[in-house]
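tokens incoming
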């Protein structure tokens, strides 16, 4: 997997070792070098109905059947977030995760098992106090940006500028912190149900049920259950009624 945070500069300098201004300039260059963006550093605004794909059963719960371009979304770490990254990158879109390398990380293996194209996903170590600046740069070239910085605080004025930039560029910002929900267009609240396959501490997980609550502008608009099931080393999404529950043999 490529990480923009680790690519060398022209003189072989690690990007992470550069001063912040040079690092942001290099990120802009890398945004322009993405094949889908080459020759078009300024993205054309997209219509409000344009959406990014999400896993099928999840899309049935969302108002636009996907994630509307130019919006902010909150979604906690876990299977649903991995599914959003997988669906976006598998459809040819580019995404990035802003993270604190010293803290817990989003499970990229889980995203890969859901079909993520990891060559289109960048993981960028980002200082908490520079989150707004980095998001603004990435919005010029990426389709989805996940901010997974528990301590990041963005000033209200910068936040409003970010919202305008996301709208203009058609990028989607996904925040893993629940307290961002008051600013988000869409808030996904996830509750994990019982896990199938484990018996007396042994066996393999065969199925996970998730209850998903969709909140728009502070009001719940839909709620439903999705099922994740492993098959041949990959994870597939199903509707609850479409998948019979089978317990793994535990010996």
């Amino acid at each position: 997997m490529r990480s923009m945070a680790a690519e060398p500069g022209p003189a072989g300098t690690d990007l992470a070792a550069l001063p912040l201004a040079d690092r942001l300039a290099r990120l802009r260059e890398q945004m322009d070098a993405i094949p889908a963006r080459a020759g078009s550093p300024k993205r054309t605004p997209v219509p409000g109905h344009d959406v990014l794909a999400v896993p099928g059963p999840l899309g049935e719960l969302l108002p636009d059947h996907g994630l509307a371009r130019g919006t902010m979304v909150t979604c906690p770490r876990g299977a649903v977030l991995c599914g959003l990254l997988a669906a976006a990158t598998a459809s040819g879109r580019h995404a990035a995760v802003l993270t604190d390398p010293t803290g817990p990380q989003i499970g990229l293996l889980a995203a890969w098992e859901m079909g993520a194209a990891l060559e289109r996903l960048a993981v960028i170590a980002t200082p908490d106090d520079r989150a707004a600046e980095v998001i603004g740069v990435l919005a010029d070239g990426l389709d989805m940006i996940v901010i997974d910085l528990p301590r990041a605080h963005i000033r209200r004025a910068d936040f409003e500028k970010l919202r305008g930039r996301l709208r203009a560029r058609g990028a989607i910002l996904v925040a893993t912190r629940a307290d961002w929900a008051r600013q988000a267009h869409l808030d996904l609240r996830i509750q994990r149900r019982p896990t199938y396959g484990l018996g007396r501490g042994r066996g393999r997980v065969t199925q996970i049920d998730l209850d998903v609550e969709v909140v728009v502008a502070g009001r719940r608009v839909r709620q439903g259950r999705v099922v994740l099931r492993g098959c041949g080393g990959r994870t597939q999404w199903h509707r609850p009624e479409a998948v019979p529950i089978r317990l793994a043999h535990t010996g």
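note: DSSP finds six helices and eleven strands in the chain.
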